[in-house]
């Protein structure tokens, strides 16, 4: 089966002497960034910026059940739990209820097995 390649746009931007940078307008608008973002340092090799939204609800138990089912244990379980929990956010398009959509609001946290 052929996987669909994710769309990527890359821009080079300047960082000021005060470590400040400006998010390009097209990225800012496409991600519907409001007042805050989340920034993640991945293996000291890249930064991942995502819009911050208030979590829908506490789904810690469901995340842990899924991680255990996927075989995570020990420190790796804790790391993956923190990652998935921090990845939870609401965008304007997510404000529908599950009954209005097909499937869970955040399927990327609970990937379907194929």
From TrEMBL:
SMART domains from the UniProt entry: SpoVT_AbrB
Q: Where is the SpoVT-AbrB domain?
A: 10-54
**Which parts of this chain are annotated as the region Disordered?**
88-114
Keywords attached to this Swiss-Prot or TrEMBL record, sorted alphabetically, are: DNA-binding
SUPFAM superfamilies found in the cross-reference section: AbrB/MazE/MraZ-like
Protein name in the entry: SpoVT-AbrB domain-containing protein
What GO molecular function annotation could you give as one example from this UniProt entry? DNA binding
Q: Quote the InterPro entries the UniProt record gives.
A: SpoVT-AbrB_dom, SpoVT-AbrB_sf
UniProt source species = Sinobaca qinghaiensis
Q: Which residues form the signal peptide?
A: none
């Amino acid at each position: 089966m052929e996987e669909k390649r994710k769309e990527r746009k890359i821009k080079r931007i300047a960082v000021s002497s005060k470590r400040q940078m400006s998010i390009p307008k097209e990225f800012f608008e496409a991600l519907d960034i409001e007042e805050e973002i989340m920034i993640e340092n991945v293996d000291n090799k890249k930064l991942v910026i995502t819009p911050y939204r208030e979590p829908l609800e506490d789904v810690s138990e469901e995340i842990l059940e899924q991680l255990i089912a996927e075989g995570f244990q020990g420190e790796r379980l804790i790391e993956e739990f923190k990652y998935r929990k921090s990845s939870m956010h609401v965008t304007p398009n997510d404000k529908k209820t599950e009954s209005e959509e097909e499937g869970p609001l955040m399927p990327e946290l609970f990937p379907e097995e194929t």
